[in-house]
Amino acid sequence: MAFNPVTHVLFDMDGLILNTEDLYTIGFQEIVSRYGREFTYSLKSKIMGQHSNEFAVSIINELDLPITVEEFLTETRKVFNELFPLCKVMPGVEKLIRHLHKHKVPIGLATSSSKESYELKTQKHQELFSLLQYKTWGSSEPEVTRGKPYPDIFLVAASKFPSKPDPEECLVFEDSVNGVKAAHAAGMQVILVPDPQLDVTLAPEATLIIKSMEEFRPELFGLPAFDA
User: Fold this and answer.
1) How far apart are CA 135 and CA 46, in angstroms?
2) N or C: which end of the chain has fewer CB within 10 A?
């Protein structure tokens, strides 16, 4: 299969660089179980990539929770303040980020998380994230008016590269259906690295689907190959 060469790379964070999606599941289930509800994977797949206010509304409406958005977000902050510092880097990710940085490929972060949430999640991985020089925090940036599946975050993230690449020059790594749709809507190629539970037929826009970042071959997209 032939792919178009790219010059710039954008990474999602939750579930792609870090295993925080596992922690989101634990945290949301802890909260909704107080009301006798279940946080299902079907619901999770719908909210992945949304801003915090957006996913709060989605969960409250879907599960008919008797609380306000503000109350829900207050409770999530308490839970995640304890969980997020425990997160780990996903397999194959660090190798790729360091490889691209070594070869001076412009790389950036495009996460729907707020800057505050990002700081919690990355406190044990600051050196690695320092290599992602250009960062966009969707929930904290006024220019990102809509969460994924809308293209806003990727267009804003690409605009932060000094060379101002065209969308077709950017490659996105994502783990969610909403993220794939957002990158595709932005006019970018996108690699899906899904959770094993995800029905990948829901993301026909994906340029390539791989089970783990360990499978990725940079040369397929005109990027420097890993050292033998």
Assistant:
1) 24
2) C
pLDDT digits (tens, 9 = 90+) for 212-227: 999 999 999 999 999 8
Residue among 12, 64, 175, 195 flagged as catalytic: 12
Q: Annotated catalytic, 152?
A: no
Each residue's pLDDT tens digit, 44-78: 988 987 888 899 999 999 999 999 999 999 999 99
**Any idea which residue has 């990158």 for tokens?**
183
Q: Is 10 helix (H, G, I), strand (E, B) or coil?
A: strand
Please identify, in words, the CATH class of the domain defined by 20-86.
mainly alpha
SS3 letters across 29-45:
HHHHHHHCCCCCHHHHH
Does 12 participate in catalysis according to the annotation?
yes
Catalytic residue among 14, 64, 152, 199: 14
DSSP secondary structure, 63-120, as one string:
HT-SS-HHHHHHHHHHHHHHHGGG--BPTTHHHHHHHHHHTT--EEEEESS-HHHHHH
Residue numbers of the chain with a pLDDT score lower than 50: none
Phi, psi (deg, nearest 5) at residue 81: -60, -30
Give the start-to-end residue ranges of the domains of the chain: 8-19+87-221, 20-86
Cα separations in angstroms, 75 against 72, 81, 87, 180: 5, 10, 19, 29
Question: Is the separation of the CB atoms in 117 and 53 below 8 Å?
Answer: no
Contact of 160 with 136, CB cutoff 8 Å: yes
Tokens at 200, concatenated: 């990948």
